[in-house]
Design a protein that fits this description.
Layout (H helix, E strand, L loop, with lengths): L21 H26 L9 H6 L1 H14 L2 E8 L5 E9 L10 E8 L7 E5 L7 E6 L4 E11 L2 E11 L4
Antiparallel strand pairs: 1-2, 2-5, 3-4, 3-6, 6-7
Amino acid sequence: MTSTADGSPCRRRARAKPRGWFWPALVGVLLIGGVGANVGLMVAATRDPSFAVEPDYYRKALHWDETMAQEAANANLGWSVAVAVEPVESPGRARIRARVSDREGLPVTGARVAVEAFPSARASHVLSLVLPPDAGGGYAATLELERPGLWELRLRVARDGQVFTRTLVRDLARVP
């Protein structure tokens, strides 16, 4: 035992025991950190232009039988669609030309051809257009090509109560 200058014994202060606040505080910090990380990830995911959600995906899943019935109707019709993309004078634009043929290879005329087109890299940017008939027996319209790469083209051809659908994936290069 040591003594002080006046000869009285020196007492060491006893360490105060933690009062139990450390663990609840740690749990609180971890919970707040988890919430913050989730909010940060949600904000990053919704701001990413390459992130896309299929519209009405739940309704489409519930109506899967209708999708399969449409595939059977497509097979019964025997129609086919050939798509070509041609450059136009305007930069960043291209002419999309669709030729719809029946089972014998004859053009299907008098139909309404609608297209939903989007680049795979930016699937949230969907372009919808109707292709009016052109002089060559097909259907054509101008498409804004914002970026080159793989594009998904969802075609819907309707004529006299008959509906034909087809989804095509095409590599569309940037048009000069």
